[in-house]
Amino acid sequence: MEMKLFDSELKVMETLWNAGRDLSAGQIAGILKDETGWNRNTTYTVIKKCIAKGAVERREPKFMCHALVTKKQVQNYETGELIDKMFDGSKQKFFAAFLSNGKLTEQELAQLKEMVDGLSGSTE
Are 49 and 9 in contact (CB under 8 A)? Predict the structure, then answer.
């Protein structure tokens, strides 16, 4: 999946992902009005952008919206974009920068080590 979603589009997608089901455009507009103060026209415009990008499918009746991409797909794409843009495509540089801020707890560090060990197949 190679699709850049802007913050406003991500709000629509988050609404669909959080619902775990299809929502009508009107339902999305109601949720986003409460959460962000968007009016109906703003929400419909953003939904239409998501449809044009292939992130959302419009189904009838009642302008039902169906997410065509998963949150995980978007996270993977955005992470790759960040690594390419800010760390010259180097996962090692990204990970080093992430760890260098020193704001991880001992438990978080242990969990990360366990994840890395699991990827490499090594055990200690």
Answer: yes
